[in-house]
Amino acid sequence: MSSSRKVTTVYMHHPSWSALPKEDQxxxxxxxxxxxxxxxxxxxxxxxxxxxMDSGEIVPGSNQENAAFPAGxxxxxxxxxxAMTMLPRGTVESxxxxxxxxxxxxxxxxxxxxxxxxxxxxxxxxxPIRLLMGIVRGPVLETYSxxxxxxxxxxxSFLRK
Length: 161
Known about the structure:
Elements: E1 12-14, H1 22-35, E2 48-53, E3 58-62, H2 75-86, E4 92-98, H3 112-125, E5 130-134, E6 140-143
Parallel strand pairs: 4-5
Antiparallel strand pairs: 1-6, 2-3, 2-4, 5-6
């Protein structure tokens, strides 16, 4: 007999950046600054990300498009892959994502590919990644792990023989 199950998303809604600790505000500012380095010639949708590593090091990223649109790479994965190249045994503690010219009043959340990449990093490092998604002069959404954004996720357990 079939049964229905409920999936719950848990997140915090902060009314503004000023409601956050200073170190989180700074991470959001660095993500905003990184968006200025985006190459979004085709979509005109600039995204910036900044990762805080367990060492305290901050790694920025921005989306980079090309003419074979949509074959570019998102800001989150740009920063994540740079961080893992520079600090392969590092742990990502927090990620801030900012879209400076967002339409609407809600922060932008990562795309599905970025959610999967961040989930893989959580599994790789064995600890959750805190996510801050903000709008300049607007609200911030905060999650404490990728489970909140990617329930019923695909992971390595499906690949075991």
